[in-house]
Amino acid sequence: MIIAQNMIEYQMYKKRRNVRNTYLCFMTEAQLYQLSQWLSEPSKMVIIPHKNPDGDAMGSTLAWQNVMHQLGHKATVLAPNPYPTFLNWMPGHPEVVIYEKDEERGNQLIAEADFIFTLDFNTLKRIDILGERVAESKAKKIMIDHHQEPDDYADLMFSEPTIGSTCELVYQILQGLNKNNCINKEVATCIYTGILTDTGSFRFPSVTANTHKAVANLIECGADHSYIHEQIKDTARPDRLKLLGIALQNMVFLNDINAVYIKLSQDELDACHFQKGDAEGFVNYGLSVTGIQIAVLMIEYRHEGVVKFSFRSKGDVAVNTFAKTYFEGGGHINAAGGISKRSLAQTEAYFIESIRAYFSTT
Ligand SMILES: [Mn+2]
């Protein structure tokens, strides 16, 4: 069985090779060979990002789609639900099929697919009902992802949690397949976008010299970094800045554990005509305060009956395990998410109690 074999090979490969270029560890020769075999004949493919796709999810899927087209395949990006408007300039975005809006088309694409690529997530739960369609499908499934503890649904797995973004992983796979010539301006733009957004503009510890080497190559291949930064960072509506003002006003410091949190209620969102993606990046402001190690954003979505959390941290302060323990969440060491089904006031009280219990050193 290919999965088990690959996982064993992968673990052995990691142990055996004390290589300087750690990025080679996640892909064995056998895996690359298998993938290149599957790519050798024209076929039909569906490429799926996670629900509420971010820059890395859209960047990696659109880049992969573009390369697959160049290699003669029929490939469609199928997103579980809409992506935020700050990504609707990306090369290839008009052809993305949104499952939530066009289920029939999505089901048809899945039914006809020879291959299903799942990018930037590693459990079919991340794509809700679409995950059930994928699980039922007879298509070969290929996972390309950088989250911890992948589920065992793929026939071929490229999983590397130490890498900062799925886009960087896609870049390395293209190098492994010897397809650098497929990195045209569009592909370079998509990959650059995902690396940019998933590394906090190249500042997270996951960024390495290899990341910058990749980015140098992407710029040589036509990525216009200045244009991309503008598209991602400088396209806010005035209402979004108003909401940021409220968020900053609402900041509460828990100095005993070097943490800060922001609470936003549904009423506050409504007052600023909240749109998906508006609160993107708000959580990071807390980390800009001297000495702060943990920053948290909690947003009330009253209609869904949930409060959603974003957790960020610095160094070896692990917010993913905290999120998992108290808020049905998870993610990376320094960036995680979670939810609460209590009221906003109850959630806030429970949050303060639990974060103090978890991170207090005394
Ligand atoms: Mn990612």
Mean pLDDT: 92
What is the tally of helical segments?
13
User: In CATH, what is the class of the largest domain?
Assistant: Alpha Beta
Attached small molecules: manganese (II) ion
What is the string of SSEs from the N terminus onward? HHEHEEHEHEEHHHHHEEHEEHEEH
Percent helix range = 40-55%
Largest beta sheet: what is the strand line-up?
Answer: 3-2-1-4-5-6
Number of separate strands: 12
The first-to-last residue Cα distance is 49 Å
> From the helix content, strand content and strand pairing, which structural class follows?
alpha/beta
Describe the structure.
There is one protein chain. With 362 residues, the chain is an alpha/beta fold. The chain has two domains: 232 residues, Alpha-Beta Complex (inorganic pyrophosphatase (n-terminal core)), CATH 3.90.1640.10; 121 residues, Roll (Diaminopimelate Epimerase, Chain A, domain 1). The chain has 13 helices and twelve strands. The strands form two sheets. It has a six-stranded parallel β-sheet, with helices on both faces. A six-stranded mixed β-sheet has the order 7-8-9-10-12-11, with helices on both faces. Strand 7 and strand 8 form a beta hairpin. The longest helix has 16 residues. 42% of the residues are buried. The N terminus is likely disordered. It binds manganese (II) ion. The site of manganese (II) ion has 6 residues, from loops. Manganese (II) ion binds next to loops.
